[in-house]
Amino acid sequence: KAKKRFRKALEPSLGRAHFAIGHGYYNAGMIKKAIAAFRKSLSGVPSQDAYLQLAKIHFKRGQMKEALAEIDGAERVQIAQRQSPKRRKSAREAIYWKGRIWSLRGHVLGLGSDKAAAVQAHRKAILAWQELTRTGVDPSTQAEIHIRVGRSLYALGLRAEALNHFDRAIDAKPSRKETYAEIIAMLTTY
C-alpha cells in the first residue's frame, strides 16, 4: 500500500517488522507469539533469519524433525537468492548464511540419530566460516566467526581447538561484550 500511495515501499519491509516483533516476543518468553510473528514475516519475503529462529525454537523444544524442516527452508531461501539476480546477496553474505545454516544443522543432527551427518554438517560449517575469514572481515565479525567455529569444533569433540578459537574470539575484539556471554553460555551447556 505504501508503494502504491507514496511510490516507495516501506523501509524496513513489513516482513522485517514482523521478524523484529518475533524477536521481542521471544526475548520476553512469549514463544507462541514469537512463532506467529516469525511465520508472518515469512509470508512476505522469506528470510533465512526467520527460518533459523524457528529452527532454534524447535531445537530447544526437542522437535528435531521440525527444526530440520525450518533449516531446509532457510537453505531454500539461500539457494533462491543465489540464483535470482534481483535478490542476489553479496558473496560474503552468502557465505555467512551458509555457515549459519550448516552450523545449526550440525547441532540439530548431533542430538538426533544421524551422527555421521552431524559431523559432515559441522565440517561444512567450519569450511564456510574459514572461507568468510579469507574475505577480510571486521574484528566483530571475526570474533563471531571464531565463536561459531569453536562451537562446531566442540561438538566434534575437538575441545582444545574449540577453546583456542574462543580465545581468538576475545582477542579479535576484546570490547565486544557478546563474545564473553556467548562463550560462557555455550560452555555452561556442556
Structural account:
The protein contains 10 helices and no strands. The chain has 190 residues and is mainly alpha-helical. The protein is globular and about 60 Å long. The protein has helices spanning 2-6, 14-27, 31-43, 48-60, 64-83, 91-111, 115-133, 139-155, 159-172, 177-189. 78% of the residues lie in helices and 0% in strands. Helix 3 runs antiparallel to helix 4. The longest helix has 21 residues, at 91-111.
What is the molecular shape? globular
Number of helices: 10
SSE run: HHHHHHHHHH
Q: Low-confidence spans: pLDDT under 50, at least 5 residues?
A: none
Strand content: under 5%
Let me know the largest β-sheet: none
What structural class do the secondary elements suggest? mainly alpha
Radius of gyration: 17 Å
Oligomer: single chain
What integer is the average pLDDT? 89
Per DSSP E runs of 2 or more residues, the count of β-strands stands at: 0
> How helical, in percent, are the residues?
over 70%
How far the N terminus sits from the C terminus, by CA atoms, comes to 49 Å
Précis, in short:
By secondary structure, the chain is mainly alpha-helical. It has helices spanning 2-6, 14-27, 31-43, 48-60, 64-83, 91-111, 115-133, 139-155, 159-172, 177-189. It is built from 10 helices and no strands.
